Amino acid sequence: MIPFSLAAAALATEGRLSGGADPDSLITGPLVFDSRDITTGSLFCCLAGKSVDGHDFAAQAVAAGAVAVLANRPVDTSALVVPGVLEAMGRIAARVASEFTGTVIGLTGSAGKTSTKDLLTSILELDGPTVATPRSFNNEIGFPVTVSRVEAGSRYLLLEMGARGLGHIDSLCDIARPTISTVLGVGSAHIGEFGSREVTAQAKAEIVRALPAHGTAVLNGDDPLVSAMAGDTDATVITFGFGKHCDIRAEQVGVQHDGRPHFVLVHGKDRRRIELRVHGRHNVLNVLAAAATAIAAGIPADRIAQGLRQAEISSGGRMEVTTRGDGVTVINDAFNASPESVLAALTALGDIAGPTRRKVAVLGEMAELGEEAADWHNQVAAHVVRLSPAAVIGIGSSHIDRMLTTITAAGLIASKASDGVPLVEEITRVLRPGDVVLVKGANSLGLEAVARELAAVPTS
Question: H or E stretch including 386?
Fold first, then answer.
């Protein structure tokens, strides 16, 4: 946190101090909404959830080191009382952002945001102190928390921005306006909420329209809905992708025997062979986005290549590959499941297994697809049939039922998860030593925990 006083926070939020709060006390730590994350000098935000109210932990938070709490009613400890805690969090974060003199980078897209953020962080940290969105703190709650973590000595503030409707990214940019905006792609994630890809594109374009004229838009040149965003800004535009027309592109893309991609990174006359530590050929596009964003930030090519070669995806549930003692490889890609990411994960399953190892796919129903749900599940079923795994286990309702029917009609073994049997136990029954198993599904299904438990199954 760039320190400022409780009095300044009260002024920024139109709040009032209560409970003996000292107006001269400095907020030196970040905004926190989980009492377990309290650090000395932080400001605890009393958010009210469905089952837990942060106001009940106010005294505990101050005792643990918080300078005060942000509350919408008086509590029995030092507090800044505001009309709305969430809005006040945004105002405090905006105050912090206004004093930050480094580079603010905004990142959005229908899929790949968090993976790209992790890859880009590996580059930026080689160039200077970097604060980046933890995990997927990309909404109206997590975003101000991330902004509040920036310090006077930070060089980069890398902000992942999510959206479930028009105006969402606008509101985030009002808190911290980027000078570099990167858009990965417009896909089918949350299309049931947006209604169409065109509306999704309008929402994502808000991050480009927020740029100042001296800023840079980094756009996926292979996605027509994204490349069209060049018309939404007076900022400099650079593109990334696989086409010859892209400013930063990948050539000679291949996959090593363990499923890790390699390619030649091309920028003008500069050509560099990059071998990645991450799995999945779909991550090459994310790497290109990270490289293009780093170029926009003025980072030297040698440093970019070094960062990419050592980059890993630190946020869990995204191409997290673990090989057990019995040779079973578990691919945990279960944090979310947009249709495009499911198809990419199935391709990665095939690449990692190669021609000799058995493949097992554990697939959850894809959510928030609206009228396109049936078509997308049909496409996934067709991809599974082409992949020809040894077994498929499906989790979900009617869409999964139809998908499994298509798969079994092609002569493959496929079944729906049983209600009375723990899923890990059911998966274990079909596995043999040396198999490769993919666990993929919507976050709401909780399959990430299943994948982690599966990876930790004793093998002796």
Answer: helix 373-387
> What CATH number is associated with residue 338?
3.90.190.20
| pLDDT tens digits for range 284-337 | 999 999 999 999 999 999 999 999 999 999 888 889 999 999 999 999 999 888
Instruction: Please count the structural domains in the chain.
Output: 3
Task: Answer yes or no: is 89 within a domain.
Answer: no
Inter-helix orientation angle 168-175/85-99, to 10°:
50
Burial 282-318 (b: 16+ CB within 10 A, else e): bbbbbbbbbbbbbbbbebeeeebbebbeebebbbebb
Q: What letter does residue 335 receive in the DSSP assignment?
A: S
Q: Which domain holds residue 179?
A: 100-310
Model confidence, pTM: 0.93
Each residue of 99-151: pLDDT tens digit? 999 999 999 998 899 999 999 999 999 999 999 999 778 899 999 999 999 99
CA angle 458–336–112, rounded 5-degree value: 115
Q: What is the DSSP letter of 53?
A: B
Read off the pLDDT of residues 201-212 as tens digits, 9 standing for 90 and up.
Answer: 999 999 999 999
Burial class (CB in 10 A: 0-12, 13-18, 19+), 206: buried
Please tell me whether residues 444 and 337 are part of one structural domain. Answer: yes
> Do both 277 and 132 map to the same domain?
yes
What is d(CA 4, CA 10) in angstroms, rounded to the nearest whole number?
11
